[in-house]
Batch of 2 targets.
Target 1
Amino acid sequence: MIIAGPRATACYDRAHSRSLDPEANMKNPLDSLWGTVLAGLVLTVVLFYLARTMM
Amino acid sequence: MSWDFIHYGLGRWLHILFGVMWVGLLYYFNFVQPEALKRANAQTPPAGATITKHVMPVALAWFRWAAVGTWVMGAFLLGDRFNQAFLFREPAYVPIGIGAWLGTIMLFNVWVLIWPNQKRVLGLVAASEEERAKARRVAFLASRINVMLSIPMIFFMASSGMMHYPVFAG
């Protein structure tokens, strides 16, 4: 199936310009509330194993 | 009334009371208020300024002083084991030590990053529009970092009792 039209072109342009700008690809997980919660859960697991090795 | 009751009974109770207020308000700022502001600003006339003007300063005052109360009562609870916890000198104090460090970083964020920048955002301190935008971003990220840190912090605080020792010790 060929996807064409103005929407497809706009989508391609956006993706292409992102790939050219490395900073545009970087997203801060803390900008998203659920990204923040996920980061907190991951940190909990990491610190749990760190605590175990320290004990 | 014995000293042990004051230390471990009342001390723990106050530590938890202050902690609930601190983290509760932190979660209000991150989980509740942004959506409430969005809805309030979407109505005609926009009503978001009411929240910013009347709710934020009061909530921030309780928030930052509850943070102090939590930390002080935590230090009081640790008592002469303060160094053992913070310096990880004793294996049994490693979980509470990690929780205490996370809480300390969070307290630092509240008083050094969130509050001074929120004062600029709320207009309590004079700032240009550019400075205000920068302050908003710093306060936002510091607040989000605190939400992230609060998750392991609560885990380590809740699991610092000896009944969870086997979980850590394996």
Note: Residues 46 and 69 of chain B are 36 Å apart (CA to CA).
Target 2
Amino acid sequence: MKNQKPDTRPVNLNLLKIRQPITAITSIGHRISGVLIFLSIPFVIWMLERSLQGPQGFADVSTLLDNSLIEILTLLLAWSVAHHFFAGIRFLLLDMEIGIDLVTARTSAMVANVLGVIGVLIAMVVIL
Amino acid sequence: MSGLKAWLLQRISAVYLAGFLVYFLVTLLTSAPQSYADWSGWMSSSAMALATTLFFLALLSHAWVGMRDVLLDYVKPFVLRLTLLILLAVGLLVMALWVMRILLTGAAV
């Protein structure tokens, strides 16, 4: 190994140009959505506390949730939860060696991605 | 917590989180509490207070495993990595105590 010539072959690691397989998109989506859910936890706990502090607190949280900016954040959280939920179930099944052949794994990755988006659409209908 | 125990914790908590989430969202969609009385009545019933507390404890444990993986993957400098892991652990513990105070002491009800 020591005497090898330095590798001068061109490297193209531009992540925006590499076309990721669908399973990789599901996987990184699972990670990103997980981090977003993590970041939301203190705000959710705070809203839970406020909403249980009395009729005024409940009304305050209701008003807050009707704010347009908060609605956008809520939709982002809805995507995160939906994608994390469905991709997570997929990973649990893969752990049990269900659907590990390539064709099924690709199909289930697509299904999880689509269900995540459908989750947001349902959330839009419900909250907007 | 790391290794097999963390792996197992992540998966057991995942199953509870998924189950609670489905129950919670279905209830919200079919009979959303319209008033403070409805909401606090639902949340302060002992079964729901316990189930919700358990949900948050599962969520925070699940977040520990997941966020730990993320930090170990992307944060290489040792001191920064250790600092963030400690902050994460402290933050999660504080949130666990916070949510237990809200739901279990009845102080908010």
Note: Helices of chain A lie at 22-51, 55-66, 68-95, 102-127.
